Description:
The structure holds two protein chains of two kinds. By secondary structure, chain A is mostly beta strands. Chain A contains no helices and eleven strands. In chain A, the strands form two sheets. In chain A, strands 2, 4, 5, 6, 9, 10 and 11 form a seven-stranded mixed beta sheet that branches. In chain A, a hairpin with a 6-residue loop joins strand 7 and strand 8 (about 75-80). The N and C termini of chain A lie far apart (about 35 Å). Chain B is built from no helices and twelve strands. Chain B has strands spanning about 5, 10-15, 20, 25, 35-40, 45-50, 60, 65-70, 75-80, 90-95, 100, 105-110. In chain B, strands 2, 5, 6, 10, 11 and 12 form a six-stranded mixed beta sheet that branches. Chain B has a four-stranded antiparallel beta sheet with strand order 3-9-8-7, with no helix packed on it. A two-stranded antiparallel sheet of chain B has the order 1-4. The interface between A and B is medium-sized, with 25 and 25 residues.
Amino acid sequence: EAGVAQSPRYKIIEKRQSVAFWCNPISGHATLYWYQQILGQGPKLLIQFQNNGVVDDSQLPKDRFSAERLKGVDSTLKIQPAKLEDSAVYLCASSLHGAVNSPLHFGNGTRLTVT
Amino acid sequence: AQKITQTQPGMFVQEKEAVTLDCTYDTSDPSYGLFWYKQPSSGEMIFLIYQGSYDQQNATEGRYSLNFQKARKSANLVISASQLGDSAMYFCAMTLNEKLTFGTGTRLTIIP
């Protein structure tokens, strides 16, 4: 079984620039998550999709972050414009049935550095 | 609001010894799930073990076991016979209403 694929692996941009991350979940997994992990902290949920609908985006800074999951498969997360405090690892995860009793499978993440 | 607390920022353990990583949680909902994940220096999050709030027995997966004390709202991870490859960050996480929330993590270092 192929795991969760994310790209790029690393990205360095200047503040006020835009950036996009891509995620392809495990085949058949209906639920997809984007997490932000700042150095030294635990991951924080940004947005959760069930198929192509948003389940929870309460912690997504909507003035600069956007995400979509067209056709209920792969997903993109965009930041525009980026701020210094957006420097973090962005983790994508998927699960078969949702997070209640089904473990999340994570990708390797995208490490973003904003200078 | 749900809350996960890991009070040990770092731990050093001798190889082959057992280690317990602490986790407490706070929720008033009777239905929830508890997970432990391992994050090596390479960055990937690896699922270790799961415990449901209604499970009567403590979960075990190989060298990992979860010491679930519901009344104390604790879900400690026990790693038996630690190995050098166990050196990593360990995160406790709780699901409630299909939302997974993580603690701040414990950095475990195994000493040869």
